[in-house]
Amino acid sequence: MKIFVLTGAGCSAESGLGTFRDKGGLWARFDPITLATPEAFARDPDEVHAFYNLRRRNLLEAEPNAAHAALAQLQAVLSQKNGGLFLCTQNVDDLHERAGAQQVTHMHGELRKARCMACEVVTPWDGDLGRLDRCPSCHNSGSLRPHVVWFGETPLSMDEIESALHSADLFVAIGTSGAVYPAAGFVSTARQAGLQTCEINLEASENAHVFEERHYGPASLTVPIWVQNILAEL
Ligand code: BV8
Question: What is the set of domains in the chain, with CATH numbers?
Answer without folding.
Answer: 2-17+65-108+156-233 (3.40.50.1220), 19-61+112-148 (3.30.1600.10)
